[in-house]
Amino acid sequence: MKDFIIPDRDMGTPAVKSDVKVTLKIDGIAVTVPAGTSVMRAAAEAGISVPKLCATDNLASFGSCRLCVVQIDGMRGTPASCTTPVSEGMSVHTQTDEIAQIRRGVMELYISDHPLDCLTCGANGDCELQDMAGAVGLREVRYEPGKNHFAKRTAEGPNPEWRPKDQSNPYFTFDPAKCIVCNRCVRACEEVQGTFALTIEGRGFDSRVSPGMASDSFLASDCVSCGACVQACPTATLIENTVLDIGTPERIVKTTCAYCGVGCSFDAHMRGEQVVRMVPSKDGKANHGHSCVKGRFAWGYATHRDRILKPMIREKITDPWQEVSWDEALDFAATRLRQTQADFGKDSIGVITSSRCTNEETYLVQKLARAVFGNNNTDTCARVCHSPTGYGLGKTFGTSAGTHDFDSIEETDLMLIIGANPTDGHPVVGSRMRARLRKGAGLIVVDPRRTDILDTPHMGMGLHLPLRPGTNVAVVTALAHVIVTEKLYDEEFIRERCDWNEFKEYMEFAALPKHSPEEVEALCKVPAHLVREAARAYAKAPRASIFYGLGVTEHSQGSTTVMAIANLAMMTGNIGKNGTGVNPLRGQNNVQGSCDMGSFPHEYPGYRHVSDPATRALYERVWGVPLSDEPGLRIPNMFDFALQGKFKGLYCQGEDIVQSDPDTKHVTSALSAMDIVIVQDLFLNETANYAHVLLPGSSFLEKDGTFTNAERRINRVRRTMTPKNGYEDWEITQLLANRMGGNWSYPHPEAIMDEIAMTTPSFAGVSYALLDEVGSVQWPCNEAAPLGTPLMHVDGFVRGKGKFIHTEYVATDERTGARFPLLLTTGRILSQYNVGAQTRRTENTVFHPEDILEIHPSDAENRGLRNGDWVRVASRSGDTTLRVEITERVAPGVVYTTFHHPTTQANVVTTDNSDWATNCPEFKVTAVQVSPSNGPSDWQEEYQAHSDLARRILPTAAE
Q1: Strands (E), 57-126
Q2: How confident is the model at residue 1 (pLDDT cuts 50, 70, 90)?
Q3: Using CA atoms, how far apart are residues 681 and 356, in angstroms rounded to an integer?
Q4: Alpha helix segments (H runs only) across 248-368
Q5: Where in this chain does the record put each 4Fe-4S Mo/W bis-MGD-type domain (predicted)?
Q6: How many C-beta atoms surround the C-beta of residue 98 within 10 A?
């Protein structure tokens, strides 16, 4: 297995897609490339390096540095190779005396205005300017010292051209003295990220890079710290602070980001066992060399002082923690679990798998429940986020996953985004969307809140349907009403791929007057003309795609909305071809994988029901134990049964259910009622306050395995350092299983994946050898698709005929009234992730130090609120306090907050309402009242006191 890679070679300009091939000669070497390819890239394809500074292969050619000039037979002058396209029969010369003289002259000018402090420069050995000076043979600079940008003082006194370093950003330093104004950072911000935060101010000698206004710093500007500018910079002008602190890396390990469901590939640049920097891989098929602030910079939590590195136990949750050996902790846990089963029955304990752990680790945890505990009491955090995706898409299409890959975005003509905030929650996908919008694609956003994607610079048409929380089904069915009544559906597709008679019944349902935009407007508060305009735009677009997130699934009708979305795609033929599809944006790095691996109580890996005799017989043969055919308990059932005294033990790996699950008081009461709670995590999280055993987990940098992203892409995770706790997470689960009689003997995660492939049809062709060879694959990966399946449902739906399902709107039980007149909806912010356990232990807290409540100016005025005031948010379930921000991003009657900080405990106010089909909690609709407050609520103070008490650790003998 490969754990060391050679850095990606920069080809100078982006690859070109063309069916037409052109053959030319470069320095006498024949090379054939697609038409439209630059001479520079063609030379690189032939193995010939042309010097360059302003060019790089993830940005459009620019042609400003003049270092890449070449001579072409029959063409006057010396054109820039980066901006000159190839032509048939062209003959190019990259090395002549004239070219050499030009290049040395250009480089001499650059060096004359650059500090020659190479020995002490942070980029020494990793500087393109330094490399190019050697490549062109520059050995001296003839220009006398004079006016420049790098000297703080000249012979005449203070130098007005000099600018101090900008160290405002916690992750990188901007040193304008070293800037060669190549424009690469500015272009990366525009072309790759799409933020347009950087600019070139001034002209000629006065040109310089600026983060916005002249007075702005990087921290104060619109910069989102994605790192694209740092990655693009050819000098030490923009450089990671870790490189300045640690030094240049000595080896590179390719791995996968452990944050959101985009699944970005990264090259971990290492020095020994220390991460120097994380660089997004250009060959990453999900991210193509881009990243966000979290994946690029926020990996320091792995070595944070809060990491728990030794196992701990305690008899009661009121006792202080006691550090013990691994043997003691595992013996304690196994004994208590077995005793609990002896006292209360085999079904009295269960597991919760993690969407942050690897596929292999998740597979073992659900196997622990089924093969060792003897029950199917296994569930996962996907229950509280995307379980309606599995149910809804399974019923309509026959498979529980997204239909297309992210590359499909580049071919879409219109994006319909429902209940998702991709620029914050899935930033790399958001950047790809913005790039497509700038090329003319249309945009429809259905969301109670105005999200940043609507403010994409240089975007064409953009519609915002600001629906009232809880009315998703009504709005999507209203879109279908317009499509069927105006006959905008694709009859040919429906007759071929679906059941025409079934569709006719659905047409009758959707065409009912109660589903018209005019009737629905009273419910959802979206103007009818906007719904009609959106429906027509979606139906008439040649290729339209739908992206949705937790704003769809975390509702009492989450599954119904997913089915309604599938109806839209089928009736317009927007499925099974590039640029179309139904694409759920998964929140955590391995939500898809945790579902694939059989984490739900009614399904084995591969979404096969536990009652299926053939599937059960397969696992009984492989695992060597009899298995139950009865579905186990879902997470909400576990809590309810715990309060009834029937569920007494829980093994919770890598999930903080106290902070992430709804109705916090209900969760904590349930955990308090259990006899044995085992938490396996990096930190003493909120759930650990109610635990009896703390097994220290390992970070993604300390383990081998795979993650599966939102596009079904299986990516390798590779170990970069020795686990600081002594074990990888899969090893800990195996140790616990063996103490309970499991007799497992996996030597490495590769063996676990081999078992997954042997038992799971959609993973049958997956192996570490294949992933090392091709980088990643998308399931199904089997004999029929040995290299995976980027597009699903190309020739037919997995279930056969696509199924249209009636989607009747049923109002949530959660209603506003005199006591609770506002609707609270929740979401995420760019710099923080999920419950914040990782990001809050990085410098990302600079960007978002606390959860904030957004409220409309009219609602704020009615309550006498000003920006920054403390407010009390109260619901029928509980109350909390936080600061307020007055904004028109939310509509009157709607308030919004995030849930990243445990001091807020936003879920103390959310209810226990859930999706009718899957029990996915209704996080997005909570009736609340907002009123002025003086600070933390009584409950928050009580919770903090309990937390402080629960986190006491007895000193060891050595201390």
Answers
A1: 71-72, 91-93
A2: very low
A3: 10
A4: 293-297, 326-344, 359-367
A5: 250-306
A6: 11
